[in-house]
Amino acid sequence: MAKELETGNRLVFAYYVTGHGFGHATRCVEVVHHLILSGHDVHVVTGAPDFVFTSQIQSPRLFLRKLVIDCGVVQADALTVDRLASLEKYSETAVVPRDSILATEVKWLKSIKADLVVSDVVPVACRAAADAGIRAVCVTNFSWDFIYAEYVMVAGYHHRSIVWQIAEDYSHCQFLIRLPGFCPMPAFRDVVDVPLVVRKPRKSRKEVRDELGIKDNEKAMVLNFGGQSLGWNLKEEYLPPGWICLVCGAHDNHQELPRNFKKLAKDVYTPDVMAASDCMLGKIGYGTCSEALAYKLPCVFVRRDYFNEEPFLRNMLEYHEGGVEMIRRDLLVGHWRPYLEIATTLKPSYEGGVNGGEVAAKILQDAAHGKNYKSDEDSGARRLCDAIVLGFQLQRASGRDISIPEWYTNAQNELGFRTGSPQSSDAANNNSSFFQNSVCDEFEILHGDVKGLPDTINFLKSLAELRVSHNSEKPYIRERKAAAALFNWEEEIYVARAPGRLDVVGGIADYSGSLVLQMPIREACHVAVQKIQPTKQRLWKHAQARQQAKGQKQTPVLQIVSYGSELSNRGPTFDMDISDFMDGGKPISYEKAKHYFSHDTSQRWGLSDILY
């Protein structure tokens, strides 16, 4: 323990932790730990179980106050967010009793003589601090106004004020301590970036494996969905031979686990288990992502519906070659083996800082002493970019992907890479002749003409780049890797362009001969298609394993890659056996097809690509 501070130098921190999941509480623990090591008192306001804090911090300077004044999101299960229920729950928890909450918190903050309010990332705590005349700082990688922005488009305008109220609450913060993998957060005037906040293992890999009875020649996988209960039955055949699965968060009344699955205690110290394992299977949250990167643990992840933090964390995880995505239907049916085998070939490359807890604690101490942190001269531009993206999201049509403008590259700038999105049309026009010549060098155009269209030239150029990247060691985002493996570059590829249209009257009624009033626009969709004999088709590994599991010979498989998914919450790939589309020698009905595609919401875009 650090040298005891004199009473006059001892600070009092009020640390509010959101009621959503364990990830916020576990990263809070690391910051609080360093504040207490420095001799300060910390009052943590949380709904998380005591063991999350007391298992790591045993100190009379830690005070736990059980209270939830926000609710995060409501999840129907480990993977599904209920958007309307989330807004209604937040309204019930933080909006209806708002006046009472503010009065209570102001009184409490004054009673403990708090020097600084820290929020991760409870909105009303920031306003309570302002009303009490106390400075406030937020520590987070996302804010709830960004997460809820999409939900109001589903719930209707009667919940729209929630987003504005949250943003107004956050604006009372002095500044934001921003964690890696961050989302747009325009409500904060000033920002200070810190390294990853991660907990450190307490035991060696060998100690943990010996305690759990894992043999040296066995591989261990952690199954962790962040405190959410697992609602599916686990079977022995889900794992490859020689594998052991360590299950976090299993219910006490859960099924008796197969012999190659081990149930972990509720208060297990997850960093020890992760450091002793060979890969992890779970959802993407800050705690999972940051600690997997820190311990260089490959992560097999499954997307959650409608949690807009994920794309930014996923970018960070995949850029450092630490993640592989599992399709939800494969998770539920136990088709895990090909993903685990791929994960063991990954070599996570994160070499950045992992002392964010210590750095954040030092900044908080300085802030409590009155130090002001100001962003650089680009702060205004950053806030404008964040605000435009947030406003764009609020106005977009319900049910569509989060199409974040290509110039918004928070996650990419942080990691020092770009997504490779097509350049603007003006730039393309200036270079169209050069690109057209270079494309002709890469491909022999057998039929048709690019007609000087810059977007078509760019699309062909992107295909040429895929041809190069197929055999390259250079890291590429996952959708480009998947696309590069699709084609046989010595065979014909068909490229088509379909312009968008301005729909004034008629919609799709023109298909039945009705009169319409529409106009083509410059924006267009491009598709590259290739038909390949099954024996020559390059199948993704999980598709190969699926056919082997069915005991069938190699049959035709439809494989699709959709660009632009890296900053949206949808899967960039889709695949299915063509035989699944047939029933008794005839195509399945539209209703059956719709049901087939509804299994995994992150792949529903495949429905429109195939059926329309």
Task: Write out key terms for the chains shown.
23 helices, 37% helix, alpha/beta, single chain, Ribsml_uS5_D2-typ_fold_subgr, seven-stranded parallel sheet, 612 residues, Galactokinase N-terminal domain-containing protein, six-stranded parallel sheet
Q: Estimate the strand proportion.
A: 15-25%
What ranges have pLDDT less than 50 throughout 5 or more consecutive residues? 397-432
Specify the number of helices. 23
Mean pLDDT: 83
Number of beta strands: 21
Shape: globular
Which structural category do the helix and sheet elements fall into?
A: alpha/beta
Distance between the termini: 66 Å
Order of strands, widest sheet: 3-2-1-6-7-8-9
Backbone CA Rg: 26 Å
Keywords: ATP-binding, Nucleotide-binding
GO molecular function: ATP binding
Protein name: Galactokinase N-terminal domain-containing protein
Organism: Lactuca virosa
Layout of secondary structure:
Elements (H helix, E strand, L loop, with lengths): L11 E6 L5 H15 L3 E6 L4 H4 L7 E5 L7 E2 L5 E2 H13 L2 H14 L4 E5 L2 H10 L3 E5 L3 H12 L4 H11 L4 E4 L12 E3 L11 H8 L6 E6 L18 E5 L13 E3 L6 H6 L3 E4 L3 H9 L4 E3 L8 H10 L3 E3 L2 H6 L3 H7 L12 H13 L10 H17 L14 H6 L9 H6 L1 H11 L11 H16 L8 H7 L9 E12 L11 E13 L11 H9 L7 E5 L11 E5 L4 E2 L2 E2 L2 H8 L7 H7 L1
Parallel strand pairs: 1-2, 1-6, 2-3, 6-7, 7-8, 8-9, 10-11, 10-13, 11-12, 13-14, 14-15
Antiparallel strand pairs: 4-5, 16-17, 18-19, 20-21
Helix pairs in contact: 1-14, 3-6, 4-5, 5-7, 6-7, 6-15, 10-11, 18-19, 19-20
